[in-house]
Amino acid sequence: MVFNLTRPVAVSAVLLVASCSFVDEKLLPPLTGDPAPAKAGQEAVANAEKATMSADPTATQAALASTSSAPAPQVAASRFQLPEVSTAPSTGTVVGQRVETLRDNLRALQARVNQSSSQFEAMEASTTATSQRYHGTMAAINARLQIGTTKGNPILINQWNEAQSDLEKIAADVSSMNSLANTVAGDAGEVGFLLESVRSAFELSGAIEEDHRQLTVLEDETSRTSVLTNRLLNQLTNDINRQTAYVGTERMNLTNTSIAIKNGGFLGTSAGTRNYLETATTDSASGERQALVIIRFDRDDVAYEQALYDAISRTMQERPQSSFDVVSIAPLNGNLASNQAKSVQNAERVLRSLVDMGLPAARVNLASTANANVASNEVHVYVR
Fold first, then answer.
1. 44 domain residue, yes or no
2. Going by C-beta distance under 8 Å and a sequence separation of 6 or more, which residues neighbour residue 47?
3. Which one, out of 164, 269, 357, 384, has a CA that is 20 to 30 A from the CA of 128?
């Protein structure tokens, strides 16, 4: 097999196929029938409690009473939790009525922002848990591939499907964060408008000193609400950007892992193979176009996927809108009809590999030809 890589390029998210649960117990089930150590520990604690009660029942009852009266642990407040809007008696003036309306608007805004804050932290917790499962599954897959395994191992395929499912859950959380960010952005704009309305109320006539005092308090509370709302929006934006890049990178990782599972281990390129690939471009059978990849099907099992993926992904990084021609070349020696049929089948196989890697089929054109300069069926991949 000959691969022809003609230019340096990097991976594009266009190629990436989409995105886990812990599999530790499946991979490493308990091999002994020993009872869990927790039971022995519980028995020891129970014995100690019995001994203590028999020695000093009064002390024991006091300890139990102290335990039962201990305050419950408090739940940590949200990072973006807003303080409640203060209340004040109505002054009965026109400005006082305006203050009450602005205060009610602020309460409604704060309720929405607090709800968005809770939703965001729930999404963060979900993404964290899903990422941990995803990386646990990927670690198990990589450990098996590192030592080598059978081609298309069904256990690894199931684990890969779990990892892909969890990565898609993370992508769904990112999509939800996008929707939430739009909501928070609208609330941030409304808070800014409300703050200007509070400040302009100082210029209204017919106010008493109590009205201005309440307006001052309301201005401070609205200003704090604006700061926290914009802080929430910034945190959302940063997380969306980070998680989007993370999902793209891991989709590429999943694609590489899928190819490795298919081949029963990670593929590598030796120095001798690299030298051969560099010089193979000048030996293209077409004699006209320089092929990006040349695959020689001179045996039944040709492991070409890893090198093909590397070449295509680098090309897509440099030229994201690239399309490709997959040309099957049959030798003229022997039975030409049989050679052409096999050559076309090989080209279709390469096309399926490209689609599995995430390249849209519409961006691949199939063609076939015959050439006296080739000794076996070949497939050449060209960039359009």
1. no
2. none
3. 357
